[in-house]
């Protein structure tokens, strides 16, 4: 749980029924995806960066790394939204690289 955001930990603790429903939905969406797990995780990181959801970055970067993502792929993933949303995505870059580099 170290890489899980405080907000999500609070969600787990304070609303366990809703959190379980949410996780069931997330799991089913993952099963329906036609992307391989690493690509799915990288795409999710790109979305998190674009919508400025810094809290989820450490957890998902660690997961992407476990799935074989490289540091350069993490950088490219965070920056892929640069043309669409501008420098908003670079705000996530430090957190993403810290999460990747932490052992």
Structure write-up:
The chain has seven helices and no strands. The chain is 70% helix and 0% strand. The longest helix is centred in the N-terminal third of the chain and has 17 residues. By secondary structure, it is mostly helical. The chain is globular. Helix 5 packs antiparallel against helix 7.
- Helix and strand string, N-terminal first? HHHHHHH
Mean pLDDT reading:
93
Low-confidence stretches: none
Q: Output the number of helix runs.
A: 7
Largest sheet: none
What overall form do the CA principal axes indicate? globular
Structural class, from secondary structure content? mainly alpha
**What proportion strand?**
under 5%
| Number of strand elements | 0
Distance between the termini: 15 Å
Summarize the structure.
70% of the residues lie in helices and 0% in strands.
Task: Supply database-style keywords.
mainly alpha; single chain; 103 residues; 0% strand
Topology readout:
Blueprint (H helix, E strand, L loop, with lengths): L5 H9 L1 H17 L4 H14 L6 H10 L4 H9 L2 H4 L7 H9 L2
Helix pairs in contact: 1-2, 3-4, 3-5, 4-7, 5-7
């Amino acid at each position: 749980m170290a890489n899980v955001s405080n907000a999500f930990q609070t969600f787990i603790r304070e609303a366990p029924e809703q959190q379980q429903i949410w996780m069931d939905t997330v799991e089913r969406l993952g099963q329906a995806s036609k992307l391989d797990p690493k690509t799915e995780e990288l795409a999710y990181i790109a979305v998190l960066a674009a919508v400025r959801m810094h809290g989820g970055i450490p957890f998902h970067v660690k997961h992407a790394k476990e799935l074989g993502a490289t540091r350069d792929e993490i950088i490219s993933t965070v920056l892929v939204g640069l043309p669409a949303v501008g420098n908003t995505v670079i705000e996530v870059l430090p957190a993403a690289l810290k999460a990747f580099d932490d052992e």
